[in-house]
Write a sequence for this structure.
């Protein structure tokens, strides 16, 4: 048995022992106040938590193509969780219970079931913090490591293991992590995912040196190193109907450096990351190194804000299982520079980061006209322009002696050559949006937007020359009238015009609010421009909700259109659905 194989089994054994110890540690933490100083110490402890349940009852809808087979005949579904945290002095412990009975349509069926996938025990003082169990962590901007959870996406890549954070002196922070990522309910084995290890150093010069403490210029910099261990072996890989015999690496490492500089109202941030060769299903098993850079420059003062961003990504998919092609088991995070829209039609064509190569730039200009000026009027006016553009990354083919020709992405080779600072010719996404935010009086205010979007549906959604590029114009008006101190009425009016895909759309919403408890709304999205008249459907939705302190219950009935849901450049497919939805949330 090789040394690396033995090392992997030792780590697995340690993880099992750590998991087995948790109930005892948690019980000890709860019982400690009673065993030591009695009732007085209980007053220094605190219990907090949250709860959410999303339940849906699905209805058949022949016009939308929803049948028993499309929902597996299971009409009632639920996603839910309860999270409880207990803290006492320097200790905190917590756990999260989750249930998918079965998971809502659109969530991976592998979530089916219930249990406690997340638990932790944490100790923290002025210089040291130690976490055992599950945790979320981010190094820098996430290019090398980011573990996080997004409930609406069904995404959770938390690490289970050990995290240590050490601050030896003010201005220097060291972090170390070791563990395995969550993968639905699947127990860890060295065949289904790797072991993630990493360290991070962050230095803030203004805290480190007393003479810089009050300086107007703020400087911080840092670096990260992350390694993923998967048992390496020589194996046969099937790619595009061809079988290749490849030797896969055991350790795949990534490192990065970053700098943050703030001078008055100017802030500059940049981070560069490099990944050692990592043949995987996503890159078709090529041995090319990966590179990524993310840079922002911004300026702000009262009433004015300017920001510019650039992102270059080249072969930067980094997972703890090289066979996985969906969102699961991402070790790093490739931040989005495109605007995250919240209005329904503006978000119809959202952009998903392309890990195999993209060149993106973005900029935002925001200006607030003062009150009692010609444009500002009595209440002022805010004007914002945002532009983002993402292209492919310029690549050159390489010569492969075995097939005596030049090629790109040939398995078992270096794949291609990159012109790293040169955008490619293929357009992936472009978004120009203009927003005006105006308060007309004490009662009336409005938000008005115009957007022009270019969306390469084949690339972003992974189709094979089916749709091409979609060009759309979008107009939005969002108007609120405060009828009284308690009663308000808000209306949204949206239009999307395109000659591609499903054609033109119209959307409207009316929402009546009785502060601070009640809301009632009715909305509709109408695909009136669909070339197939049978698909010129209304996606209506009726909703009502009640809030009491930190608890909220909402009930809705209607249709959900098919589409892509994205959060920060990470996306999942949302199928069409029709029925009744109940959502309950609470925190304490």
């Amino acid at each position: 048995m090789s040394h690396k194989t033995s090392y992997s089994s030792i780590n697995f054994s340690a993880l099992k022992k750590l998991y087995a110890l948790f109930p005892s540690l948690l019980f000890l933490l709860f019982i400690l106040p009673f065993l030591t100083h009695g009732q007085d110490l209980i007053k220094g402890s605190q219990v907090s938590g949250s709860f959410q349940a999303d339940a849906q009852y699905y209805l058949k809808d022949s016009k939308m193509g929803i049948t028993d087979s499309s929902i597996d005949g299971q009409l009632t579904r639920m996603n839910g969780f309860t999270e409880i945290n207990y803290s006492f002095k320097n200790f905190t412990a917590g756990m999260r219970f989750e249930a998918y009975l079965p998971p809502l349509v659109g969530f991976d069926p592998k979530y089916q079931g219930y249990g406690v996938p997340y638990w932790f025990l944490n100790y923290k003082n002025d210089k040291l913090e130690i976490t055992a169990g599950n945790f979320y962590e981010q190094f820098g901007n996430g290019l090398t490591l980011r573990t996080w959870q997004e409930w609406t996406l069904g995404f959770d890549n938390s690490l289970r293991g050990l995290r240590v954070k050490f601050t030896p002196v003010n201005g220097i922070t060291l972090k170390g992590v070791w563990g395995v990522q969550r993968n639905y309910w699947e127990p860890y084995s060295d065949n289904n995912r790797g072991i993630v290890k990493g360290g991070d150093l962050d230095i803030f010069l203004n805290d480190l040196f007393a003479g810089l403490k009050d300086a107007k210029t703020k400087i911080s910099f840092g670096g990260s190193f992350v390694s993923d261990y998967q048992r390496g072996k020589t194996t046969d890989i099937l790619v595009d109907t061809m079988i290749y015999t490849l030797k896969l690496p055991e350790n795949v490492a990534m490192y990065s450096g970053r700098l943050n500089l703030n001078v008055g109202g100017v802030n500059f941030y940049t981070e560069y990351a490099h990944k050692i060769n990592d043949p995987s299903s996503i890159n078709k098993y090529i041995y090319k190194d990966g590179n990524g850079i993310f840079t922002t420059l911004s300026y702000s003062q009262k009433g004015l804000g300017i920001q510019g961003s650039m992102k270059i990504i080249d072969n930067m998919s980094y997972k703890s299982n090289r066979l996985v092609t969906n969102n699961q088991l991402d070790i790093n995070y490739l931040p989005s520079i495109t605007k995250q829209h919240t209005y329904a039609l503006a978000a119809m064509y959202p952009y998903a980061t392309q890990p195999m190569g993209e060149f993106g730039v973005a900029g935002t200009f925001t200006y607030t006209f003062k009150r009692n000026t010609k444009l500002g009027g009595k209440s002022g006016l805010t004007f914002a322009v945002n532009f983002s553009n993402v292209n492919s990354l310029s690549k050159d083919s390489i010569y492969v002696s075995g097939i005596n020709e030049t090629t790109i992405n040939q398995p078992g080779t270096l794949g291609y050559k990159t012109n790293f600072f040169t955008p490619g010719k293929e357009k992936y996404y472009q978004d120009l949006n203009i927003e005006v935010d105006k308060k007309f009086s004490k009662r009336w205010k409005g938000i008005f937007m115009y957007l022009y979007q270019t969306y390469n549906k084949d690339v972003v959604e992974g189709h094979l020359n089916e749709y091409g590029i979609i060009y759309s114009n979008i107009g939005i008006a969002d108007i609120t009238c405060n009828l009284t101190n308690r009663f308000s009425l808000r209306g949204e009016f949206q239009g999307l015009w395109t000659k591609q895909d499903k054609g033109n759309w119209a959307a409207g919403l009316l929402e009546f609010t009785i502060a601070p408890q009640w809301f009632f709304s009715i909305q509709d999205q109408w695909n009136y421009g669909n070339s197939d008249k049978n698909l010129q459907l209304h996606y209506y939705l009726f909703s009502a909700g009640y809030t009491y302190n930190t608890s909220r219950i909402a009930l809705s009935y209607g249709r959900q259109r098919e589409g892509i849901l994205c959060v920060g450049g990470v996306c999942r497919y949302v199928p069409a659905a029709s029925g009744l939805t109940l959502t309950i949330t609470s925190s304490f």
Q: What stands out?
A: The chain has four helices and 34 strands.
